[in-house]
Amino acid sequence: MRIAILQRDADHRQQLERVLTQCGHACVASSDALLLARTLAASTVDMLLLDWQGSQIAGAELLRTLRAVNGSQLPVLFVSEDASDENVVRAFSIGADDYVCLPVCPSVLRARVNALLRRAFPDRFENLTIDAGPYRFDLRHQAVSVHGKPVLLSTTQYRLAALFFSNIGRMLSRDHIYAMVWGRELQTLTRTIDSHVSRLRLVLEIDTPNGFRLQPVYKSGYRLLCLQDESEALAAEGAGLESA
């Protein structure tokens, strides 16, 4: 998973990042809430770890902004030196999912983070397979089949495909894709992602006959669309207009 961290104290920030990367997560860490807000405006993450205080704006203001854009699905954990009951209550009232005080035991932090991610993305934690139309992913053996026929993918192709099919309907930013597939943050513009996506479309036959479309999102990233869900949404919208 890709996790954004806002923490003004450098030592605490490095500790949080170290604990999470050891668990296999990719991290976007900052001490500046405004800078992080700008980053997240053009990026996607799976979770937020916020400090209550901020250098220019506080974590509370950042959370309000991100909730307005991303809704309630994005899990948010406050990790702060401020242990006052008043601010803990305030954090929950503005949409936080959990709150821990620093310093925090690494095992406790891992447990809290995993609990929130499991609640937000249950399919990624509870299932050993992904079944989507004719596609079946065996997550344990990193194997893929289409219409029951095995398809041989490279390690990079498998990671890319599993990422998309674990996030059907969700726009994934380029830096999110790069961090989760290539294991590092995207620093410069590159056509690597586009080349791999184009190849993946062909290898897995991601197209209308198989019920999915891999859609580029202008200047942002990609979204895997389930065409059945899209057609059902359009039908429901049409029915609503007819009854109006």
Describe this entry's structure for a reader.
The modification 4-aspartylphosphate is found at residue 51. Residues 2-117 form the Response regulatory domain. This is Response regulator transcription factor. Residues 127-226 bind DNA. It comes from Paraburkholderia ferrariae. With 244 residues, the chain is an alpha/beta fold. It has 2 domains: 2-121, Rossmann fold, CATH 3.40.50.2300; 127-231, Winged helix-like DNA-binding domain superfamily/Winged helix DNA-binding domain (Arc Repressor Mutant, subunit A). It is built from 10 helices and 12 strands. It has helices at 10-22, 33-41, 59-70, 85-93, 106-120, 122-126, 155-165, 174-182, 192-204, 227-243; strands at residues 2-6, 26-30, 47-50, 76-80, 98-101, 129-132, 135-138, 143-146, 149-151, 171-173, 212-217, 221-226. A 5-stranded parallel sheet has the order 2-1-3-4-5, sandwiched between helices. Strand 4 (76-80), helix 4 (85-93) and strand 5 form a beta-alpha-beta unit. Helix 2 runs parallel beside helix 3 (59-70) and helix 7 packs across helix 8 (174-182). 30% of the residues are buried. The model has no long low-confidence stretch (mean pLDDT 85).
